[in-house]
Design brief:
Number of helices: 9
Largest sheet: 4 strands, antiparallel
Structural class: alpha+beta
Number of strands: 8
CATH topology of the largest domain: Alpha-Beta Plaits
Distance between the termini: 23 Å
Strand content: 15-25%
Order of helices and strands: HHHHEEHEEHEEHEHEH
CATH class of the largest domain: Alpha Beta
CATH superfamily of the largest domain: YebC, transcriptional regulation domain
């Protein structure tokens, strides 16, 4: 499962310095709009909105911007009503599975943009259902361990209801059932653990190990897809090595 987390960390690190910060904020604003449309403007009673706000914090989006986005989404004629959630499935180099989730007000436009991105990246767009079955929805919590004992934190997470834990160098990835994400996150925070991210995500059931050249091509394709305005998140079933991650990060 840890390969998924490495891509997430690349995105967060890139987002700290990327000149396209405005694009990131726009995507976060869309997520807020849909969350408010579905569950209302009160984050205490709207789990999806709480997750969206947490993601805004992770990306250093000013809280004034977050409040404004919630107010806009709550008002009449807000853009959230026009946004449609949709997923696109495809294959990257070496037949790797790629899943892209989007929020769009024009599915045909987004479909063409995603198709072009796949083609330019050496992949192909596939029919619905072709690769989605290779992934499962999970809660994912990243805990920065620092000098703390990762084993102790892992045991706390399991006791709080986590399904699985992956201990990495300097951090720990906790996986939960989607409906247990909030409870496990709160338990870890109450135990004074440093939770750096928490989200509902798509985890590959099995991971593929590729050579450096092919792995770099997949990362470039995923990055190309995620740079599209309408694409919110991209997932693959590739296990990226630390060396490949660092090489890609250096050139990003």
């Amino acid at each position: 499962m840890s390969g998924h987390n490495k891509w997430s960390k690349i995105k967060r690190a890139k987002g700290q310095t990327d000149a396209k910060r405005g694009q990131i904020f726009t995507k976060l604003g869309r997520e807020i709009a849909v969350a408010v449309r579905e569950g209302g403007a009160d984050p205490e009673s709207n789990f999806r909105l709480r997750l969206a706000i947490q993601k805004c914090r992770e990306n250093n989006m000013p809280m004034d911007n977050v409040s404004s986005a919630i107010k806009r989404a709550s008002g009449a004629g807000s853009g959230g009503a026009a946004l449609q959630e949709t997923s696109f499935e495809g294959y990257g180099p070496r037949g790797t599975a790629i899943l892209a989730q989007a929020l769009t007000d024009n599915r045909n436009r987004t479909l063409q943009e995603v198709r072009n991105a796949f083609q330019r990246g050496g992949g192909t767009l596939a029919e619905a259902g072709s690769v989605a079955w290779l992934f499962e929805s999970k809660g994912s919590i990243t805990v920065d361990t620092g000098a703390a004992d990762g084993e102790d934190i892992a045991l706390m997470a399991i006791d709080a209801g986590a399904d699985d834990v992956s201990i990495e160098s300097g951090y720990l990835e906790v996986y939960t059932a989607p409906n247990k994400l909030e409870a496990v996150r709160r338990a870890l925070e109450q135990a004074k653990c440093t939770v750096s991210s928490a989200e509902i995500t798509m985890i590959p059931k099995t991971l593929l190990v590729l050579g450096e050249e092919d792995a770099m091509r997949i990362l470039k394709l995923m990055d190309r897809l995620e740079e599209l305005d309408d694409v919110q998140r991209v997932f693959s079933n590739v296990d990226f090595s630390d060396a490949v991650v660092e090489k890609f990060r250096a050139g990003a």
